[in-house]
Design goal:
Elements lengths: L2 E2 L1 H8 L3 H10 L15 E2 H8 L13
Antiparallel strand pairs: 1-2
């Protein structure tokens, strides 16, 4: 699986690393962490999704 660092993604998206972290902690950008506290790695699929502006499609919740 190809992954990118926060810095690499920030450069590709032309935003600051702080913006990338806001997206991560806000739930806009999904990342991988091997262990808690390790650096965030951004999968290539997320890079493609965000750089082509494909929205996250939420699955509908079944009505109870």
């Amino acid at each position: 699986m190809i992954t990118y660092s926060v810095q690499q993604f920030a450069e590709a998206a032309k935003v600051s690393p702080q913006t990338v972290y806001r997206w991560i902690y806000g739930g806009t950008l999904k990342t991988i962490q091997i262990v808690p506290g390790s650096p965030h790695r951004i999968p290539a699929s997320e890079v493609k999704r965000l750089l082509t502006f494909e929205p996250i499609v939420e699955q509908p919740t079944p009505e109870a």
